[in-house]
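Lab manual, section 2.4: Encoding a predicted structure.

Procedure: take the sequence of the chain (240 residues), apply the prediction step described in section 2.3, and record the output as structure tokens. A sample record is shown.
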Amino acid sequence: MLLRWLLFVMLGSFGVAQSVPIGYGLEEGTQILVFVAPNCAPCESLAALKDFPITFVGRAEQMPYNPYRQDKGDLLARALRIHTAPTLVVLKDGWEVKRITGKINPTPKTLGLLIDAAEAGLLSPQYAMPLALGQPAPALYQDFTGLLIFGYEGCSWCQREKDTWARLCQQSVRLKIIYSEGKWPEACKGELNTALFSTFGIPGTPTHVYLREGRVVWVDVGYRSDLEEVVQALGAMEVK
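Recorded output:
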């Protein structure tokens, strides 16, 4: 346990467990996404791939990939902390379990092995959590829509996010801070609730859990410089 927390402190600026948001049809089973971008030379060779068990994702309305999905507002890329194209991400029940960045050359055999490994449980998030996308929150939050942030005062990465928390609260974003110790920004609502840390299986701080009508919509562990943009996009997202 001590080693886990030491690693989290050192790697706090990186995501160590993240999910896609509910609403994209990616929260069940095994999925492989490849994030591409215009004027990306390493991406161009991927356009020739046909009938592969992958979905290409990009910001542009149209790109020469098949099948292709537009990432409106960059919510998928932001949620999964995608910063480089191309990036291949393997999802299992909505959770990232594997990624490959830079120049990639997937073959049917390689993709098949990745899918088999994910299905067999051989691939998992760096910090597996007992949360499932779509699961109901505890009774206290059964009707809550908004963001729960788990932290504590001595967490240096929480301190870096605090100004963002306060801005979101001032913008009337529904946000509640769950602390294990210490105080939260005055502009925000919060509570000391160590039991909820255990219920949600929180592996480190800060951890972000977005709920819609009491159900888990998105989970992310680690400091985020773009938290404000992600939360605004989640709030505006139309779940189909």
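Check your result against the sample. DSSP finds seven helices and eleven strands in the chain.
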